[in-house]
Amino acid sequence: MKEQLEQLQVEALEEIKVASTQKALNDVRIKYLGKKGPMTEVLRGMGKLSAEERPVVGELANKVRASIQETLEARIEEVKAIELEAKLAAETIDVTLPGRTTFPGNSHLLQQIIDEMEDLFVGLGYTIAEGPEVETDLYNFEMLNLPKDHPARDMQDSFYITDETLLRTHTSPVQARTMLEANGQPIRIICPGKVYRRDEDDATHSHQFMQIEGLVVDESISMADLKGTLEVFVKQLFGESREIRLRPSFFPFTEPSVEVDISCFKCGGKGCNVCKGTGWIEILGGGMVHPHVLEMAGYDSTKMSGFAFGIGVERMAMLKHGVDDIRHFYTNDLRFIEQF
Amino acid sequence: MLLSKKWLNQYIDVSDLSGEALGDLITKNGIEVESVTSRAEGLSGIVVGHVLSCEKHPEADKLNVTKVDIGECEPVQIVCGAPNVAAGQHVIVAKVGARLPGLKIKKAKLRGVESQGMICSLEELGFEKKQIREDEQDGIHTFREDVQVGADVLDLLDLNDEIIELGLTPNRSDCLSLYGIIHEVAAILERPYTLPTANVTSDVKTDVTVQLDTANCPYYAARQIDGVTIEESPQWLKNILIAEGVRPINNIVDVTNYVMLELGQPLHAFDAKKLGSSIVVRQAENGEEMITLDDMTRTLDSTMMVITNGTSPVAIAGVMGGANTEVDDTTTSIVLESAYFDPASVRKTSRTLGLRSDSSARFEKGVDPERVLTALDRAAAMIVELSGGTISQEVIAGGKDSNSRTIEVSIDYINGRLGMELDRQTIVQILERLGLKVEGDTTLTVHIPSRRPDLELPADITEEVARLYGYNSLPSSLPASQAKGYLPAINVLRRNVRRILQGAGLSQAITYSLTSEANASRFDEHGSEKVRLAMPMSEERSVLRTSLVPGLLETARYNTARQQANVALYETGRVYFEKGDTLPRETERVAGVFTGLWMDHRTQGTRIPVDYFVAKGVVDTLVHTLRLDVTYEAAVLPDMHPGRTARILKDGEVIGYVGQVHPAVSKDVYGLKEVYVFELDLLALQTSSTLLYQDVPRYPSVSRDLALVLNRDIPAGQVEATIKQAAGPLLIDLSVFDVYTGENVGEHEKSIAFSLKYQDPTRTLQDEEVNASYEKIVEAVKVEHGAEVRA
Question: Which of B504, B586, B603 has its CB closest to that of A133?
Answer without folding.
Answer: B586
